[in-house]
Specification:
The chain has 310 residues and is α/β, with parallel strands linked by helices. It is built from nine helices and twelve strands. The relative contact order is 0.15. Pfam families: Peptidase_S41 (PF03572), Peptidase_S41_N (PF11918).
């Protein structure tokens, strides 16, 4: 097997665990917990927990399971990349040129993850997209969708299949549902960053292209697979009482982070920040976003549509 060959000839579990432990201690948003996780992983390595695992994908899966067992953080993961680790966004949030081009091409190939925009009977808008891409890449498409939906009498945003993405797009889209001038002092959320020891706040943007969607009902559909940035969008608008959430409790990942290389073929996702909502003072980490109306995910659209059309 190719993976086994990689494991035997290039990679040792000790190298991976040591690199992972060091990166955790340097970057994880909870420093004390990082030390505890690192110590436990090293002990498990010494006890032979990773002996005999010759498949690289399997090793990454086992270590990820241990990371979750110790942290209960669904963003904290280890990945095996047979093609080599990806280009990484630097922690100053600037993008290497190669990464910009990769994201742009991926966005075009996936139509920027925008799956369906339509007007249902009764002038009810429906918008499904499955990823929050940075406005630099997907802003024009988001504007086009919101312009098309602007004159509906209610709007349903379907995040049942959305696994998250960039917080800048969360801020961008949220801003369409609040008035310019009147709501510019409305804080949407905040993210505590460990490295800078500061709280980065996000507010309603003073300008978005195209018409805003104001004073009309907004429904957000969720499922057990709704995650990360999609949860941020749902939770933020729920706390501000601007959206009605219909569906299932979401997956529960509120700690944003970065990917860090461990070896040439292994990289880790480590949350370096923590979301803090200005209203609740907390977030949805580990608990998920609780819907205002709990229904099975497959029933959520029908339920929301009936409420919007009534």
């Amino acid at each position: 097997m190719q993976n086994s060959k990689v494991m035997q000839e290039q990679i040792s579990p000790r190298e991976i665990i040591e690199g992972l432990a060091q990166s955790l201690c340097e970057n994880y948003v909870f420093p004390e917990l990082a030390q505890q996780i690192a110590a436990t992983l090293r002990q498990r390595l010494a006890d032979g927990a990773y002996d005999g695992i010759l498949d690289a994908d399997q090793l990454a899966k086992v270590i990820t399971e241990h990371l979750y067992e110790l942290s209960h953080d669904k963003h904290l993961r280890l990945f095996y990349r047979p093609e080599g680790v990806s280009e990484h966004i630097r922690e100053d949030q600037s993008y290497p040129a190669e990464e910009i081009e990769r994201i742009r091409v991926q966005g075009i190939e996936q139509s920027f993850y925008m799956k369906k925009v339509e007007i249902l009977e009764g002038n009810i808008g429906y918008f499904r997209f499955d990823r929050f891409m940075h406005p630099y890449f997907a802003g024009e498409n988001m504007q086009a969708a919101m312009t098309f939906l602007a004159h509906t009498r209610a709007l349903i945003i379907d995040l049942r299949y959305n696994g998250g993405g960039d917080s800048s797009m969360v801020q961008f889209l949220c801003s369409y549902f609040f008035a310019a001038l009147e709501d510019e002092q409305v804080q949407l959320t905040g993210i505590y960053e460990r490295k800078k020891d500061l709280l980065r706040q996000q507010w309603v943007m003073p300008y978005v292209p195209g018409p805003r969607y104001l004073q009309k009902p907004l429904y957000v559909l969720t499922s057990q697979n709704t995650f990360s940035g999609a949860e941020d969008f749902s939770y933020t608008l729920q706390q501000l009482k601007r959206a009605y959430i219909v569906g299932e409790r979401t997956k529960g990942g509120a700690n944003p982070g970065f990917k860090y290389p461990i070896t040439v073929n292994f990289e880790t996702m480590i949350p370096s920040g923590r979301s803090i909502n200005p209203i609740s003072g907390t977030n949805w980490e580990g608990t998920g976003v609780t819907p205002d109306l709990a229904v099975a995910a497959e029933e959520a659209l029908d339920v929301a549509y009936r409420r919007a059309a009534s």
